[in-house]
Amino acid sequence: MNVAVVGLGLIGGSFEKASRRAGHGVVTLHHGDETGFENADLVLVCLPPEAIVPWLKEHGPHLKKGAVAVDIAGVKRAVMDDFARAFPVPPTDWTFVGGHPMAGREVSGYANSLETLFDGASMILVEDRRCSPSPLTFTSSLETYFRSLGFARIVWTSAAHHDAMIAFTSQLCHIIATSYVRDELVPETLGFSAGSYANMTRIATQNADIWSALYASNRDALVPVLDRFIVRLSEFRDALAAGNVTAVKAMIDEGAVAKSGK
Fold first, then answer.
1. What residue numbers bound the domain in which 217 lies?
2. 208 backbone dihedrals φ, ψ, rounded to 5°
3. What pTM value is reported for the model?
4. At 2, is the secondary structure helix, strand, or coil?
5. Domain C-terminal end among 101, 135, 157
6. What's the sign of the alpha-carbon dihedral 87, 128, 135, 140?
7. The last residue of a domain, from among 101, 125, 157
8. N or C end of the chain, less CB within 10 A?
9. pLDDT band with cut points at 50, 70 and 90 for residue 132
10. Burial group, residue 155, by CB count within 10 angstroms (0-12, 13-18, 19+)
11. What domain count does the chain have?
12. DSSP assignment, residue 134?
């Protein structure tokens, strides 16, 4: 497959490297490049959420007939809604699919990209619901491509369900990490921390511009998730303050059962 990667940060760079490893033809474009994607069967738009649809609006008419464009933004409703406004009538010569690779690192930039970043990860895909169901050959070729990069699971879902789940599985985790490392004891952790601290703080070095925008665009899904977490945390705090060991043990047991899936 001929692939064009637009945007060469951590994720774009990793798509480039993983695609080359899998034997695909790859061209790379920085944001602002005007040519290079015209012969691509698949265009991966690895730009910030607010830049995705403007790029498609400008360059969509020049995409190869039958091409597929997939974005990689961490929110899907905002992107899909922007696309619907920009293209009241879905394009007929090419197809847009929302995407989100469930993989990343605590560092950013092309220098930190890896050809193995997607090995074992999930790739989430969201179709434009205004279009007719895609033929099996279309979905099969797209899934085959992503699996060739190392993705172990391909998940098709709606934009709303994606954003609701990502609020819980990703955004809440980043908020917890950020809140955790703002404690007054952090400067004294050297020599007192092991795996637990490392695991809890790994994602605290997030890019403020990127993540604040992601939180803001998904706040209606994120705030309820955060509210529920605060309630559970308060329950733990109140039980400890009251010396209610029975309640503390019950919550620990509930968590262990929930994690095990039993």
1. 162-260
2. -65, -40
3. 0.90
4. strand
5. 157
6. positive
7. 157
8. C
9. low
10. middle
11. 2
12. P
Token pair for residue 209?
A: 């511009």
Tokens standing for 182? Answer: 């703002």
DSSP E strands, 25-178: 25-29, 42-45, 68-71, 95-101, 122-127, 153-156
CB atoms within 10 A of CB 41: 17
Burial class (CB in 10 A: 0-12, 13-18, 19+), 169: exposed
**CB-based burial label for 236 (10 Å; 0-12, 13-18, 19+):** middle
Based on the fold, state whether residues 15 and 118 are members of the same structural domain: yes
The verdict on 227 and 145 lying in the same domain is no
CATH of the domain at 19: 3.40.50.720
* Max CA pair span of the chain: 68
Q: What is the pLDDT of residues 159-178, one digit of tens each?
A: 999 999 999 999 999 999 99
CA 69 to chain centroid, in Å, comes to 16
Quote the CA–CA distance of 102 and 166 in Å, as a whole number. 10
Q: What is the radius of gyration, based on Cα positions, of the chain?
A: 21
